[in-house]
């Protein structure tokens, strides 16, 4: 049996203090983003990385790395190549950090596994394609007019689709959607709307019917993910694609329940919050079995982007890849980055595993909290 035993684990909560502070809704304080990184080094000299983003008001987050700290010692000595076994072990750990604190360990193990095999992960997981269309995931702007130059810049850059993070206030969002539709209705650009679970059922239904009329690509997080009845009604009574928030119903049984009860038009999922690459890969198959796309959620830093992109490229049932734009806010510490080309496509990083190279000196310099175990 091949082995690649984990000899050292390093944890970092990385805060880029030069990045923009980007809220997602009108009532939020500016959000500060923390890149929570796991670095695993094996006895045979391989290195794997995994990460998850956390976003908080007023100060950078330390909770995720503190939760990781209680998991990391038990990983020492485990075979990183046994990803299914390792994921089962991770899922059984007692941690108040939940799946978010466990996911980066699974991702780092897959990075090691790909490097051991000498293969990019998307090929190792199935290799459905080597590129896919992406969309720009926008910040929220103070005024409607501020969206226009940003959207124009996205189109000029090459994006063929754009998702609006809006005010999450129905009347203000209505003005924004109508203005964007009027300006770009003949542009050939696909638009999506993300209202971050702020709407009532009545508001969500009205907006969904308008987006259906405008033929927008999808309506994301219209109501709370736990409001099952509203989601069922939206899917039943409107024709626009209804997508969940993607941060609440994460386990395979929860996703299976939602699909079996016609709550979503697609599955919204992210390797860095659902438990890692192991469950995300299974979730793609579950969505396919129900005839649904899995529209990947990958708002975050380069490691987050890479983990989700590799799994999406291993399958056919994902239409778009999410890119936080402008890029620079989410690229700190990465030597090679993931960006959309002029044709609107994104490729996985070259190299085995995730293919991401980190500047560990920069990571350590910007860390507000770190631990190491061996």
Helix content: 25-40%
The main sheet comes to: 7 strands, mixed
According to CATH, what is the topology of the largest domain? TIM Barrel
Q: Helix/strand/pairing class, anyone?
A: alpha/beta
Counted up, domains total 2
What is the rounded Rg?
20 Å
Question: pLDDT below 50 for ≥5 consecutive residues: which ranges?
Answer: none
Order of helices and strands: EEEHHHHEHEHEHEHEHEHHEHEEHE
CATH class of the largest domain, anyone? Answer: Alpha Beta
Counting DSSP E segments of at least 2 residues, the number of strands comes to: 13
Query: How many angstroms separate the termini?
Result: 23 Å
User: In percent terms, what proportion of residues is strand?
Assistant: 15-25%
> Given the C-alpha coordinates, what overall shape results?
globular
CATH superfamily of the largest domain: Enolase-like C-terminal domain
Summed up, the helix count is: 13
**What is the residue-averaged pLDDT?**
97
Return the CATH architecture of the largest domain: Alpha-Beta Barrel
């Amino acid at each position: 049996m091949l082995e690649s035993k984990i000899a050292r684990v390093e944890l970092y909560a990385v805060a880029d203090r030069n990045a923009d502070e980007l809220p997602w809704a009108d009532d939020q304080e500016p959000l500060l983003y923390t890149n929570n990184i796991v670095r695993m080094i094996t006895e045979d000299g391989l290195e794997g990385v995994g990460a998850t983003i956390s976003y908080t008001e007023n100060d950078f987050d330390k909770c995720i790395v503190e939760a990781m700290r209680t998991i990391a010692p038990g990983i020492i000595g485990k075979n990183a190549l046994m990803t299914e076994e390792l994921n089962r072990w991770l899922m059984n750990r007692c941690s108040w950090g939940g799946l978010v604190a466990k996911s980066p360990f699974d991702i780092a193990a897959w990075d090691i596994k790909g490097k051991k095999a000498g293969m990019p992960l998307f090929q190792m997981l199935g290799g459905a394609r080597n590129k896919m269309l992406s969309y720009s995931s926008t910040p929220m702007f103070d005024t409607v007019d501020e969206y226009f130059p940003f959207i124009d810049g996205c189109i000029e850059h090459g994006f063929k689709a754009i998702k609006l993070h809006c005010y999450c206030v129905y009347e203000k969002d209505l003005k924004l959607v109508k203005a964007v539709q009027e300006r770009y209705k003949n542009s050939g650009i696909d638009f999506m709307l993300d209202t971050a679970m702020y709407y009532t059922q009545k508001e969500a239904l009205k907006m969904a019917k308008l987006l259906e009329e405008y033929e927008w690509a999808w309506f994301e997080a219209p109501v709370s993910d736990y409001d099952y009845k509203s989601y069922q009604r939206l899917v039943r009574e409107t024709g626009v694609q209804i997508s969940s928030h993607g941060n609440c119903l994460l386990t395979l049984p929860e996703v299976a329940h939602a699909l079996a009860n016609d709550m979503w038009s697609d599955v919204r999922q992210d390797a860095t919050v659902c438990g890692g690459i192991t469950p995300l890969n299974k979730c793609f198959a579950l969505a396919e079995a129900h005839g649904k796309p899995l529209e990947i959620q990958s708002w975050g830093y380069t490691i987050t982007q890479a983990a989700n992109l590799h799994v999406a490229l291993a399958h056919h049932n994902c239409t778009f890849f999410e890119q936080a734009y402008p890029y620079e806010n989410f690229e700190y510490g990465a030597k090679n980055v993931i960006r959309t080309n002029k044709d609107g496509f994104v490729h996985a990083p070259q190299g085995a595993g995730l293919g991401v190279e980190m500047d560990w000196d920069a990571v350590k310099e910007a860390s507000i909290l770190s631990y190491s175990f061996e």
